[in-house]
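fyi for ur records
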Amino acid sequence: MSKEDIKSSVYLKGERVPHYRSLSDIEYREVYRRADWDGELPDPGQYPFTRGIHKDMYRGRLWTRRQQSGFGTPEESNERIKYLLKIGQTGVNMDADVGTKLGLDPDYPLARADVGLQGTSLCTYEDMRALFNDIPLDRVSSTLIVQPPCSAVIMSQYLLLARERGIPWENLIGTIMNCAFTQFVGPTYQSATTFFPIDLTTKIGLDVMEYLIPRVPRWNIVNVNAYNVRECGVDAVHEAAFSMCVVAEYIQRLMDRGHDVDDFAGRMAFFTAAHMDLFEEVAKLRAMRRIWARMLKERFGAKNEKSMWFRTAIQTAALPLTAQQPMNNIARATLQTLAAVLGGAQSIHTTGYDEAYSLPTEESHKLSIRTQQIIAYESKVVNSADPLGGSYLVERMTDDMEEQILALMKVVDDKGGFIQCFKEGWIEDRINEARYKMAEDIETGARPSVGVNIFKEEDEQVNINIFRHESDMQDKRITYVQDYRRDRDDGPVRRALDTLSELTAKNADVNFFEPIMAAVEAKATNQEICDAMRRASGFSIPG
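which gave:
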């Protein structure tokens, strides 16, 4: 920069941010006083749990460090799990690839190009055995990231593996995502309806919940993926309201099946985002805890206090992470992780700085874990159960967030509920509106992004290591599943699939989980099980 450039630099004249609104368009006040908030604030661990679900929060136990992982073959993912546990991860967060989630085997034409790219490829019981080789299922909490109907297949594989190892199901600890609407790419209509009929998807998700309730008492039966809702581009209010509305429908449908709310509500959890607006994210989590507690008590009649605990895993948002100046993402992810801690999360995944380029490398994964460890052990923010409690700003914003979330929930309820709004396209319309608004705000600079629309470097050279798959990984997986089908005994497979098809064709009012597990045990693949139900319901994959 020349001397003349320095003299004319706008940055030397004093800078201001473009506005003082939150990401959800709530106006920040210049200063907050007692007049802005003069409410009652029960202690942490007391209803409605605004300040946290435990009285001592992280003084009693730190959050679970649960980095999402999964890529390539089950064997490769197994090695990454072991590496993460070795360097300080305290829970497994295992993602499946796109084909697995859509009920497609690796050799299906539409799936071939995506095998193992965004998660690990899982299609057989042998795959589950390889994925969790030497991982103690009764000592390590595992989250299995897959939606119905494939959640029934993957959960069956996991339970059969526990049985094979002699581990009682009541000793298993973990979570199955299992949300029919929010898992794949948020509640977008095409993603949830193109590869499986949505009503059958919803039924199977509920079947999974119902099967697990009495048999696997320490297992979370659903993890509503508010994170993927937020990653669609909506704000914190939509993230919270949409996820609350969909789980409310799950609760009502399980109760309609004859289950007492206190038998299962304490095993429903959320997966939420931590975005860049630190105080709004803290306020969002406080508001969601309060809304959940009151909804369970007042609307659904829960009596057990644990049913009223809003429990959430947090992943720091990938949406604000940039390909430009990628090392800036380290600062972004750190601030988001701090927001998750100050907000009282039960589990945290810190997204890697290389997210805009690839799956995380071992180096990036390690940095994410070290970020959490530094916050936990060096920052001292865990020394108080609720360090921001009583802040006029935070409590006022919590009230504002709660008011807006409840107002949007009422709109959804008045329109017939989340599932009806989803089927009619109303949910997707709101998502698309938010996407256009976000893009416009980035374009105009109303949403500043360092390195993208401010402080850009036109001649930037990016030099970072990125994760690369083995060149023959996809071919190996395609050959594997073809050999698997050729070498097995097809008789038991046919009988198990015929049983499942018959139940589907009859629209039988029975739980499908055991027939699906029987098909897994007979050595049917993920796609064969899903296809049996697709064909019997008259559904076909387009293209």
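Residues 36 and 396 are 6 Å apart (CA to CA). thats all i got for now
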